[in-house]
Design goal:
With about 600 residues, the protein is an alpha+beta fold. Helices cover about 30% and strands about 25% of the residues. Helix 9 runs antiparallel to helix 10 and helix 11 (about 505-525) runs antiparallel to helix 12 (about 530-550).
Amino acid sequence: MKKYIIYIAILIIGLVLGYVIFGRSAEGSANTKNVSDMTENSTMEKQMWTCSMHPQIMQPEPGDCPICGMDLIPAETGAEGLAMNEIKMSDNAMALANIQTTIVGNISGSDDNTMALSGKIMANEEANAVQASYFEGRIEKLNVNFTGEEVRRGQLLATIYAPTLVAAQQELLTASDLKESQPALYKAVRNKLKLWKLSESQIDQIERSGKVRENFPIYATVSGTVSQKMAEEGDYVKQGQPIVKVSDLGTVWAMFDAYERQISQLNEGQKITVTTNAYPNKEFEATVSFIDPTLNTKSRTVAVRATLNNKEDLLKPGMFVTGKVAMAKGGQMETQITVPATAVMWTGERSLVYVKTNPNEPVFEMRAVTLGTKNGDVYTITEGLSNGEEVVTNGTFTVDAAAQLQGKKSMMNATGGKTMTGHEGHSGMQENSSGENADKTNHSQMNERIKVSSKFQNQLKQVFDDYILLKDALVNDDARGAQQAGKQIDQSLKKVDMKLLSDEKAHNHWMTIQKELKTSANAIGNSTDIATQRGHFKHLSAHMISSVELFGINQKVYSEFCPMADNNKGAYWLSLEKEIKNPYYGEDMLSCGEVKATIQ
């Protein structure tokens, strides 16, 4: 009995030692593994994948870009600190989209005796010269190749064949034989040639040689930059007809617009300091040289001009500039917030801009603003922006597209969340389970219809008809037919006349949509791989749906949805029939999908 007790005690001690040695180690390993797994899972959860060419694409796992088919790359991390409706773009995306920003208002915000004016650089009209043809004829050789070319005074601009000069030279040679007997006739013939800008030496050379010249040169009378070519080689020009316009950019004008309440603080001869976005740390000193005596009754502004020295060729016509003028003693002027028209987007009820919320990183957020008067290409902001804030002034629609695709608050979606205008289709619509309910989709979530001319709708209808041909080709697994339809869409888009859109909001919307449609149509037209074509068809359909909803085509169409398309992410398309014929799968799953909305 004592022996068994000893054996049991040894067994218990062995179990305890085994647990202490191996159990804790295993537990520690398990805990370590769990921590490692959690860290790995956390990293995987945070890691998103994007396309280097289309940074608006964000996927939770690697794969191909749904737009261009390129391999996705890891997206930059560090977006955890973004606010709900902020969007961050990579430096590469900023460069590709040519996104530019401007600081608004009086940057210092502290100088109460300084008045800020907005304007832009223009060529000095006093230094412009038009080089005309002095005689009628055909341009045999034009030595100016392109706009922007530098020319020097006395440089050969063109050579012209002039039949009238040929006849005048014959008269000179005849008169030279009679100059002793008829000196008045001889002198009149020489003067006639001088009126055509022939020099004394040229006339003497013709007389000495006794030969008639067929081609005559035209020389530059001023030095400068060719701002406009007004004729081409081979053109027949009349006497006095312009050939090129030359601008001397050694001096340029800064043209500002001052409001009525600012006029009293401005005088000719007043010093003005000019800054531009291109050289933010450089100031240009100038003097107010002209104040328009008349008031523009539409914008309630007067034009103020300053002449700037531009010997270093830093200031380019078209640049936006800000001028600071010291006000008279006792003058008080509130800071004027103005932005270029390119910064503003319109939805019919709202005016929107994108504000750079982080000065050191490309982080943006949409902001609703209240517009004041429009002065040329510049808007006054009466509410919504503060002095010194930085707004997007070029590439605004690209930033908005990225916001839409990431479900952020955007132009088409005031509350945030996925919208129907992005690459994900228009998932903002209700996804009803039955065709009957789908026809009763809540259209308050759809794009607001913009009134346009029937002529524009007919041109858009042609684009839509080509889209249907493309859809049918994909339904029939016909890659060649899809390729041809993609090319037809591109040709039809070129025939849509944007000038028919008089409404500025409609013009801006169509400009953005047309670009996206063209990109997708070209990609489909350049591919014979049906899987690639179907990937681009999703993007094309999203923007085709937007265009039909916004502008209408005087035809009833159905918006249809397949939840299994694009690796179960789902995709939309348009059809003329309720019957489902799936363009994303063709014969493999022809009837997969459902009607989501009816667009009247």
